[in-house]
Write a structure and sequence with these properties.
single chain; about 180 residues; 6-stranded mixed beta sheet; 3-stranded mixed beta sheet; 4 helices; about 30% strand
Length: about 180
């Protein structure tokens, strides 16, 4: 693959030509290399979340997806922002195509790792808030906490839950995630 130049601006069509063996995100036209393969702890937490959400959503219109799964946050305008959250929930199936999600998902979950923590807490926080993702969870395996950010009038309001809690999923009525199960590793 030709070396990407950070000073150049890219769009989704460019992104689609990049080598599939490398994982990238595109934020405001700027490419960001993604971290290497996640740890087993990271994968265990994703798996536990996926199972709980998937079981809750059986027979419902909302679907849960695992990374790698492209989310084109501004597909209908500049099409220069593509992220791959660890996990996401989409209730409007018209947003889904063969490659991913076109527009803001209903819920995004990122599992922190040492290499992604700052990016997930700042860059992605602002990005998801800007593009109207209704609910954004940041899961911290080290502190065994989950920050639940819920969008209200264009701003996120935050609640923090620990491994002793059941955390409500605000975009899914009656859905509670048992956090002890997530961190039981």
């Amino acid at each position: 693959m030709e070396a990407l130049r950070k000073e150049e601006r890219y769009v989704y069509a460019d992104y689609c030509t990049w080598n599939d063996s490398e994982r990238w995100e595109l934020i405001g036209g700027v490419p960001h290399a993604m971290s290497p393969a996640p740890s087993s702890r990271h994968q265990t937490i994703i798996g536990a979340l996926y199972l709980q959400l998937g079981n809750f959503l059986k027979g419902k219109s909302c679907k849960v997806f695992l990374s790698p799964f492209d989310v084109r946050l501004n597909f209908d305008t500049d099409d220069d922002t593509v992220v791959q959250p660890d996990l996401l929930v989409v209730c409007n199936q018209a947003k889904i195509d063969d490659k991913g999600c076109n527009g803001a998902p209903d819920m995004v979950i990122e599992i922190l790792s040492p290499s992604s923590a700052r990016h997930d807490k700042s860059v992605k926080f602002r990005l998801y808030q800007q593009f109207g993702v209704p609910e954004y969870w940041i899961v911290d395996p080290e502190t065994k906490t989950v920050q639940v950010h819920v969008l209200d009038n264009g701003r996120y309001y935050t609640n923090i839950y620990t491994d002793a809690d059941d955390a409500p999923v605000h975009v899914l009525e009656d859905c509670m995630i048992n956090l002890a199960d997530l961190f039981a590793i």
